[in-house]
Amino acid sequence: MDFQEAIYTQFAQSFEAQQQALESLPPYIEHAAKVIFSSIASGGKIICIGNSTGSHLSQYFSTLMLDRMDRERPGLPAINLSGDGAALLAITNNDSYHDVFSKQITALGNQGDILFVIANRGNTSSIIQAIQAAHERKMNIVALTSPEAKNVSSLTSQDDTEIKVNLLGTARVHECQMTVIHTLVDLLERQLFGYED
After folding, report:
1. Residue 7 within a domain
2. Which residues lie below 8 Å from residue 11, measured CB to CB, with a gap of 6+?
3. Which residues constitute the domain of residue 68?
4. What is the strand order of the sheet 161-164 is part of?
5. Which of 86-100, 108-122, 140-154 has the lowest mean pLDDT?
6. Which of 88, 120, 118, 128 has its CA nearest to residue 104?
7. Is residue 9, in this structure, part of any structural domain at all?
8. Matching PROSITE patterns, A to Z (predicted)?
């Protein structure tokens, strides 16, 4: 096996995937950044969830919101529901895994808040119930998805924003979603704090 060739292939495929995403995603990213800004400016918060490895990305997004990315600034209101192990275990034990996010959203979510979802698998009942609970609380959804998340796409309303990375392959999808996250945080900082390059 030629390791150098394998390395080159991984980088080349990543560059190609990023270029493809760049051609289709900017309007959706811009809209999501404006929706999240509007929520925060009105006193709302961002509630983050994800399934599978999307849970790690949702935690990363909430961490960047609470702390910062490149510029020093005040923290922004974000909660990650995937990271509270005690709550997840208690809800799973007392109710079911399907309710792990929806029960927390019903308790913590308010009208004007945003549910930030990273879903790369479509038939995940915990994510589906979370979106339904958020709509019941009159929250808007910002969803980062892939082609496999068809059920999530079907649940988003005209008031929601879906940023769908139309690529195949877990690595390529996650790389593009990571870039979307970095871009969203940058756009929020520009809107909230007037940062420029």
Report:
1. no
2. none
3. 25-192
4. 78-80, 46-50, 114-119, 140-145, 161-164
5. 86-100
6. 88
7. no
8. SIS (PS51464)
Amino acid at residue number 36? I
Q: What is the pLDDT of residues 171-183, one digit of tens each?
A: 999 999 999 999 9
Residue 20 within any structural domain of the chain: no
| pLDDT per residue as tens digits for the range 37-63 | 999 999 999 999 998 888 899 999 999
Do the domain assignments include residue 3?
no
Q: What is the mean pLDDT of the chain?
A: 91
- Are 42 and 113 within 8 A, CB to CB? no
pLDDT tens for 143-189 read 999 988 888 888 888 889 999 999 888 899 999 999 999 999 999 99
Per the structure, the count of domains in the chain is 1
Q: pTM score, two decimals? A: 0.92
* pLDDT reported for residue 29: 98
Q: What is the CATH number of the domain that holds 32?
A: 3.40.50.10490
